[in-house]
Amino acid sequence: MENFEEVLAQYEPMIYACIRKLRIYKNHSEFVQVGRVGLWKALQRYEKERGDFAPFVYRSIYGSILDELKKSHANEQQAVPTESDVLERIIGFKEEVVDQNKFIAEALSHLNPTEIQLIQLIFLEGFSLDEAASRLEMSKESLKKKRQRTLKKLRNHMKVPGAETFMKV
Is residue 119 within 8 Å of residue 150, measured between CB atoms? Predict the structure, then answer.
């Protein structure tokens, strides 16, 4: 068949059409490149006796872009929250709040040492309930109830609109 540059010039609009059809708005140039690779692979695999090239290349480009979209979505889903993300979830609002440290310290000052340790183990250090229960020398059920009471206590002292939705565990 023709060389790749000629095929690319002819079928590049198809790559952009696939990207529009899949409603891809982020990392646009990355997906254009994935479409080009899909076109190149289609050119390598195409057998004339099996049918027209255009529908074959369309399926190849579309499939390549769709596969990459699935991979990028899976990678986003596997993101692990950082300590600041966890802390934001606990307090229910972003770091833009003025005097955030005072606000947190004020809310935490109403907790007893066991409750503070519970918050630290579960939310900051990422311990499982079993591990935290073992560390605090209590049953898992007791720990769950203590966690609920502690979060309710924090909610009451923080009085942030909408904090209830962020702090439900």
Answer: yes
Q: Which two tokens stand for residue 118?
A: 């519970």
Name the CATH topology of 83-167: Arc Repressor Mutant, subunit A (1.10.10)
What Cα–Cα distance (Å) separates residue 99 from each residue in 2, 77, 113, 160?
A: 66, 32, 23, 14
Which tokens belong to 5?
């540059």
Measured in whole angstroms, how far is the alpha carbon of residue 51 from the centre of its chain? 41
Return the closest-CA partner of residue 123 out of 85, 72, 165, 164.
85
* One pLDDT digit (tens) per residue for the chain, 169 residues: 568 888 888 889 999 998 888 888 888 889 999 999 998 998 888 888 888 888 989 999 999 999 888 888 766 666 565 655 665 565 555 444 445 566 677 777 888 888 888 888 888 888 888 888 888 888 989 989 998 998 888 888 776 555 445 444 4
- Give the CATH architecture of domain 4-77: Orthogonal Bundle (1.10)
Residue type at position 140:
K
